[in-house]
Amino acid sequence: MAMQAHEIEALIRESFPEAKITITDLAGDGNHYAAEVIDESFRGKNRVQQQRAVYAALKGKMDGAQGELHALALTTKAPA
């Protein structure tokens, strides 16, 4: 079952309540999204650490062939 953008944002927001989050449906199919997450907690962390934190917030929704979310192009950074 495909996920909606607001569901992805809600999962991320649980872990990053003050973040600026932008979700874009890339293919219009509910399976291929881009997400930009800007949060102060990313300051001092490298990109891999930032992205692992966001993937953890998705609580397994991308895991394996049966995952609800097929693809997520992820951009993370601390606020400027």
Automatic annotation (TrEMBL):
It comes from the Bacteria. Signal peptide: none annotated. The keyword ATP-binding applies. Keywords: ATP-binding, Nucleotide-binding. InterPro entries: BolA, BolA-like_sf, BolA/IbaG_stress_morph_reg. GO terms for molecular function: ATP binding. The keyword ATP-binding applies. Gene3D superfamilies: BolA-like. Belongs to the BolA/IbaG family. This is ATP-binding protein.
